[in-house]
Amino acid sequence: MPHKTTEGRRAYNRRPDVRRRLKAYRATPAQREHIKEYKRAVYQLESDHILAKQRSYRKKNKAHVLRLEHLQREKNPIAYMLAAARARAKRLRVPFSLNPTDVSIPALCPVFGTPIYRIAGTRTGNSPALDRVIPTRGYVSTNVCVISYRANVIKNNGSSEEHRQIADYIDRHSEKKG
């Protein structure tokens, strides 16, 4: 509460915006559902206006928004990894059925045995990357593994020795997950 005195609290609770919030908080489940539907309808009617305000805020406060996004990405890298994978799956039209418990970032790259670590704001060869072992199967728990970014890039364009290492990794991975 912003006010410590009883009179201040009463004045605060009489404000229209606070009254709406308190009313929604004290509502029955049926009333809460009605409130949700109402808010959805309002959003659909005013979504252009709301999105324009959000864009305007992001433009005016770009540094602040980027800093917040960066902090969130550092707190939970797997969530951001999965969000990016979901967007790629949609773009590539491949299946996606991962959740955060399906993915973990290992200490060492399973392909090269090099350490995997994150450096804030940059992508290095040792950064974690979500790999589809067999690309056509999509992002499903039996087909993904976190490997180093370098190993993932080499799968696209690498030397024959590097490809042999990757082939050995794929064979090991296929035997493990069946």
For the record, give the distance between the C-alpha atoms at the N and C termini, rounded to a whole number. 57 Å
Q: Percent of residues in helical segments? A: 55-70%
Overall tally of structural domains: 2
Enter the CATH topology name of the largest domain: Herpes Virus-1
Strand content: 5-15%
Largest sheet: 2 strands, antiparallel
Low-pLDDT stretches are none
Average pLDDT rating: 86
Shape: elongated
The helix/strand series, from N terminus to C terminus, equals: HHHHHEEHH
CATH class of the largest domain, please?
A: Alpha Beta
The beta-strand count equals: 2
- Give the class from helix and strand content and strand pairing: mainly alpha
CATH architecture of the largest domain: 2-Layer Sandwich
Our count of helices gives 7
Report Rg. 24 Å
User: For the largest beta sheet, what order do the strands appear in spatially?
Assistant: 1-2
